[in-house]
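Sample 3 of the quickstart, ligand S-adenosylmethionine:
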Amino acid sequence: MFIDILTQHGVDATLAARCEKFWALVKAKNAVMNLTAVTDDDEAALRHFADSLELLKLPEFPGGRVIDVGTGAGFPGVPLALARADMSVTLADSLNKRIAFLEEACAELGLGCECVHGRAEELSLEKSRRDGYDAAVSRAVAQLNVLCELCLPFVKVGGVFLAMKSAESEDEINAAKGAIKKLGGQIERVAEYELGGVVRKVVLVRKHEPTPPAYPRRFAKIQKQPL
Ligand code: SAM
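Result:
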């Protein structure tokens, strides 16, 4: 069923089998540490894998160098890397145990992802990462105004930040417009797709100018005084 659900969503059989292999690793580790609240195979196929792979259907998805901010158990970053060997994928998370798991899993799957432990607002201050990615992607990490301060500094001018959001995110999207402008970006469009009868959104934020050096601020400040 796991594989059937993915093929119903347009995933080819080889990729679906590779996703299933990664899911087996997540499930095994989830028994001993908290990686994901999803435990059912079919639900994982839909909510973790099919959802992550929707990003590749967007014509604006640039490929190239991509960072997944707050990747958790590896979503959406690992399915993207499984699907596109031509991309260079960085998986970043502030929880070291999750990054250690992802390092093991990537080695087992023969994936060349860079697995980085660190807070996004600190990692984007590194010279090699600042304005260094064709795309940043993120799901279920923070409200959009906060998330943009965490993610846009990674993106090259001309690149894109793709924020995966629920259908009920309209107010959140409107409230983030001022923050996005201050960070050098602009919402290009909000894409919608349907997943298991539920509408999901991807907010496409294009970076038009370098993010001013004042951003990102320290996390306490970002949270206390969101842009
Ligand atoms: N993106 C995954 C998904 O959709 O399944 C995981 C979502 S999980 C709810 C949020 C993750 O973001 C956690 O693993 C957490 O450690 C990470 N996180 C939260 N704030 C972060 C930050 N400032 N920098 C890096 N990672 C962060």
